[in-house]
Amino acid sequence: MKFFSLVAAVGLATMCANVAFAADHEVRMVNKDSEGRTMQFEPAFLKIAPGDTVTFVTTNPGHNSESVEGAIPEGAEGWKGRINEEISVTFDAEGLYAYKCLPHFGMGMVGLIQVGDDTSNLEAVQGARYPGKAAARMEELLGQVTAGAN
Ligand SMILES: [Cu+2]
User: Which cofactor does it need (predicted)?
Assistant: First the structure.
């Protein structure tokens, strides 16, 4: 009986630890961000921990969130929200994840999520295809990537 309660206590403590450490983040899909840029994700750059969840919130209608082909860590699963769909994505694999709003991709509506400190897919993210204003915007976001713990 004593052994059983110890196992139960350890199990409960582990569960609480997971709940306490996995954070939830929010990215808003907006027609204009706080710095006056049109058609944006805000914040467009996020650094999170493995296991964290990001919810893409439909602050303004007409947007979606979907990962950019070839611009997420190898083996990681991409996502594709429908227009006006609020989706939550949990990021387990470390690395960089570029994403876009499909209708406003060429207008520069892109975002970048850094999960943990592994930046080994940086070149793959840089090498993906970004039309129109998305190229310069992604360049800005990649400038916010940090190596090592911060
Ligand atoms: Cu959009």
Answer: Cu cation
pLDDT greater than 90 at residue 2: no
Cβ contact 145:44 at 8 Å? no
101 is in an annotated binding site: yes
Domains of the chain: 22-142 (2.60.40.420)
CA of 97 to the centre of ligand 1 (A): 17
Percent of the chain with pLDDT over 70: 85
pLDDT at 14: 53
Selection from 71, 75, 141, 78 nearest residue 112 by Cα: 141
Distance of CA 144 to the CA centre of its chain: 14
* 77 phi/psi in degrees, rounded to 5: -95, 135
Q: Measured in angstroms, how far is the CA atom of residue 59 from the centroid of ligand 1?
A: 11
Q: Is 109 annotated as a binding residue?
A: yes
